[in-house]
Design a protein that fits this description.
Elements: E1 4-6, E2 14-18, H1 23-35, E3 37-43, H2 49-60, E4 64-68, E5 71-77, E6 89-90, H3 95-104, E7 111-115, H4 126-134, E8 138-141, H5 142-145, E9 147-153, E10 161-163, H6 169-179, E11 186-189, H7 197-204, E12 209-212, E13 215-218, E14 229-230, H8 235-247, E15 252-259, H9 266-273, E16 277-286, E17 289-297, E18 305-306, H10 318-326, E19 331-334, H11 347-357, E20 361-365, E21 368-372, E22 380-382, H12 388-399, E23 405-407, H13 420-428
Parallel strand pairs: 2-15, 3-14, 6-7, 10-11, 18-19, 22-23
Antiparallel strand pairs: 1-23, 3-5, 4-5, 7-9, 8-9, 11-13, 12-13, 15-17, 16-17, 19-21, 20-21
Helix pairs in contact: 1-2, 1-7, 3-6, 4-6, 8-10, 8-12
Bound molecules: shikimate-3-phosphate and phosphoenolpyruvate (PEP).
Phosphoenolpyruvate (PEP) binds next to α3.
Length: 431
Amino acid sequence: MKDRTFQPLERPVVGEMNVPGDKSISHRAVMFGSMAKGKTVIDNFLDGEDCLHTIDIFRQMGVRIKQSGLHVVIESDGVEAFQEPTAPLYFGNSGTTARLMLGILPALPFFTVMHGDPHLTIRPMERVVTPLKLMGAQMDGRKEGNYLPIAIKGGVLTGIHYELPVKSAQVKSAVLLAGLFAEGETTVIEQTKTRDHTENMLRAFGADIVSNENTITVTNKRKLRATDVTVPGDISSAAFFIVAAAIVPNSYLTLKNVGLNETRTGIIDILLEMGANITIENKREISGEMLGDITVRYTKLKGVIVEGDIIPRLIDEIPIIALLATQATGSTVIKNAEELRVKETDRIHAVVTILTTLGAKLEETADGMIVHGDTKLQGGSIASYSDHRIAMMGVIASLISEGSVTIDDVSSIAISYPAFFDDLAKVTKER
Ligand SMILES: O=C(O)C1=C[C@@H](OP(=O)(O)O)[C@@H](O)[C@H](O)C1
Ligand SMILES: C=C(OP(=O)(O)O)C(=O)O
């Protein structure tokens, strides 16, 4: 482990910055670009470790992909030309890659084995395996197919009508992707709308897909057509800097070209409810997704209740929202967020443990936490649980702590935000 110590920030967070490309959209652009026959160019790709694993997996199946930094060129002969990989496919830490590929691999006429790092190996896959088996997928894995490694024997799939038991865009996407290959129609019904990047991008790639409120139907009638994608900035990465500017006195920060898809902007709604000074300008659409520039100015905030349908719209932002809540007046209650327990680590437990160590007052609940506000953080030594979002939350917490914050290992940050420290240095430097 490589301990790193972060000192409190003695000045405001100021400036203008870009955040890296959206992780969810970058994964999907590589997947659909690989499945479509022809050339797909991706700009502002996220060169984080998770998305690089997605590229490697398609390369192992024979797709020609050139990646240099944020620019990716895919040349594919189409999904029919994919070749059987001669080695197991490695998914690293990436839940999105694993779950979405579980929707693609069972329709390919060959054998594959999926495996991942120790964190991914204990994340539940049964939520995807169950509907896919209903479609006829032949797969098995550890503990009745619930955990990686999973082995898949390609075959024929049949469409289904499936009500999602979990609020998960990854499960929704896996079933829809399997539906692209299945006989007949595949319909997915969501209890609560989750991020809809799969639907938006499949539409752009020419798939036969129809969404109506929370019901989405696909058929295998049309082949995907290669389509260039410009990836908007990732609001989940922006969240760390939005919160930094909201909690460090006198801050004033603009984040340019951030994705503003409504299924992802729960953090903005919560900040506005807390009384934050946030404005959005230059709102526009690119590659079927909204984006714009977000400006945040420091102001005193008040606690709120975060629950219900907003949870999937800010699920990955809950660790940093918890930090924000420690600085607001009154308490913030986070409920219905039990999904956090099956992310890269149990994020409810990790957040409560870390912020308590730093001097905040929180209570862990089964499906969330209660954060008591107006607490000065003292600093201390914390573990990152090898979770990128937890590590970044720890670094941002150091900005407002009285003493320094030592984190056991921050290397996981490269999973979703390789330029995090460079960007942080730019907006916190002495002027
Ligand atoms: O579809 C996606 O790209 C994602 C969906 C969410 O996971 P769930 O589908 O498990 O909620 C999110 O937490 C993850 O970071 C990315
Ligand atoms: C949960 C996350 O990603 P994944 O599920 O793809 O590992 C995340 O990025 O916070």
